[in-house]
Automatic annotation (TrEMBL):
PANTHER family per the UniProt record, alphabetical: METHYLGLYOXAL SYNTHASE
Residues where substrate binds: H19, K23, T45, G46, T47, T48, S65, G66, H98
Originating organism: Alitibacter langaaensis DSM 22999
Cell cycle among keywords: no
Keyword Methyltransferase in record: no
CDD domains: MGS (cd01422)
Protein name stated in the entry: Methylglyoxal synthase
Highest rank taxon of the organism: Bacteria
Length: 152
């Protein structure tokens, strides 16, 4: 499939997600970077989004809990170009009943080429990047051209 360019604006729409055993680590990471994150539009799946809002007072658009469909909601937002990056403190040591949804979420984030961090070290790299607070172009699938070719 051909690609096209999408510009991620300086104010990013950021998904904050964490498995149960990684929620405290994500909350601590958000506390460390609260000032920078407050300049962006934050989204969180169920419990994670609510905890971040309660503990830090940050405005977080809260989706459903991951196992209840929040991962799929987030994946839909990525596919609709309504999400710019994702910080997902994934727990690889504990199987979750919604592992297929998690795999699908990671797949769709990769397909649409958004920046993704699965741990604190990578999240630190993303947030300290000069691109974090600036517009940046990324390459995404040119789905419109693909559809036009398929309809011919």
């Amino acid at each position: 499939m051909e690609t096209t360019t999408r510009t991620l604006q300086s104010c990013k729409r950021i998904a904050l997600v964490a498995h149960d055993h990684r929620k405290r680590a994500l909350i601590n990471w958000v506390k460390t970077h609260r000032t920078l994150l407050a300049q962006h539009e934050l989204y969180g799946t169920g419990t994670t989004g609510n905890l971040i809002h309660q503990e830090m007072g940050l405005n977080v658009h809260t989706l459903l809990s991951g196992p209840m469909g929040g991962d799929q909601q987030l994946g839909g937002m990525i596919a609709e170009l309504k999400m710019d990056m994702m910080i997902f403190f994934w727990d690889p040591m504990n199987a979750a009943p919604h592992d297929p949804d998690v795999k699908a979420l990671m797949r769709i984030a990769t397909v649409w080429n958004i920046p993704v961090a699965l741990n604190a070290a990578t999240a630190d790299f993303l947030i300290s990047s000069s691109a974090f607070n600036q517009p940046i172009d990324i390459h995404i699938p040119d789905y419109e051209s693909y559809l036009k070719q398929r309809l011919k």
